[in-house]
Design goal:
Strand content: 15-25%
CATH superfamily: Metal-dependent hydrolases
CATH architecture: Alpha-Beta Barrel
Order of helices and strands: EHEHEHEHEHEHEHEHH
Distance between the termini: 15 Å
Shape: globular
CATH class: Alpha Beta
Largest sheet: 8 strands, parallel
Helix content: 25-40%
Number of helices: 9
């Protein structure tokens, strides 16, 4: 059984997603109901909703929307990783409001869609430091060339748990091993960073990838971080670009067939329970 740490629900009738216009394959609604039906079939027992880079004015509306999904009978949802804007002066007040909301387990600011210097700003870094002493995690979604910037953020707040999304977003289709490989080893030296084994099917050639295509990228990530600092995620519906939820879940089972039962349990669910207090 899995705990899925990376579900996106897209509902354009309720929220605005400016980036979707540039991604035609995802520019439609992806409902919780469609996800849950398939998720139960592949053994997903609980899930965390990951923010979907909604319009800035919709950030708190998205939190409320996910709260409504969590409140449904037999919902798989157990929490949310909310969007945030640490570069803005209103972050401190926003953070204080979310302290009162048990739904919110952590935050993410997608960094590969903004200029590189956004995460280097004084206010951004001051606000990341505000996470110290809270229950909140921070997801790092960066390209391989940006991994040093992710390391700098992790170093700023050594008592904050950071989660590196999607095995560091490697260019599997382009076989761009470096600088990804070296940077992954370096960021893994930071004990407050965990890695998410998620979404990598979307970075491979959708027509030709196999489990063996994914193996070196996934195994290097686990080798760097160890089974105590990895979690699993579907990245649905982005994973549909590379085959879909059922395909990625099946590939995961094959990739880790040689791991011990204890190692699989840590990756599939136990580490998520510990990190987010599920």
């Amino acid at each position: 059984m899995f705990i899925d740490t990376h579900l996106h629900v897209i509902d354009r009738t309720e929220l605005s997603y400016p980036w979707l216009s540039g991604t035609p394959a995802l520019d439609r609604d992806f409902s919780y109901e469609a996800y849950a039906r398939e998720a139960r079939r592949v053994g997903i027992e609980n899930t965390l909703h990951m923010e979907v880079d909604v319009a800035e004015d919709d950030i708190e509306a998205e939190i409320d929307y996910v709260g409504g999904l969590k409140g449904r009978p037999d919902s798989l949802l157990v929490g949310a990783i909310a969007a945030c804007r640490p570069e803005n002066a209103g972050f401190a007040a926003f953070l204080e409001r979310q302290q009162e909301n048990p739904l919110v387990k952590g935050f993410r600011r997608v960094l590969h869609v903004v200029p590189d210097d956004v995460s280097e700003g004084a206010l951004f870094r001051e606000n990341i430091g505000r996470l110290s002493g809270t229950r909140f995690t921070f997801d790092l979604c960066v390209l391989p060339r940006q991994l040093p910037k992710a390391m700098a953020l992790a170093d700023l707040a050594p008592d904050v748990q950071f989660i590196l999304d999607h095995c560091g977003v490697p260019d599997i289709k382009g076989d761009a091993v470096e600088p990804w490989r070296a940077h992954m080893a370096e960021i893994a030296r930071r004990p407050n960073v965990a890695a998410k084994i998620s979404g990598v099917v979307a970075y491979a050639d959708p027509e030709s990838w196999t489990v063996e295509t994914l193996r070196p990228w996934v195994e290097h990530t686990v080798d760097c971080f160890g089974f105590d600092r990895v979690v699993w995620g579907s990245d649905w519906p982005v994973c549909t670009l590379g085959g879909g939820l059922s395909t990625w879940a099946a590939a995961t089972q094959v990739l880790f067939a040689g791991a011990s039962e204890e190692e699989r349990a840590k990756l599939f669910r136990q580490n998520a329970r510990r990190i987010w207090g599920l």
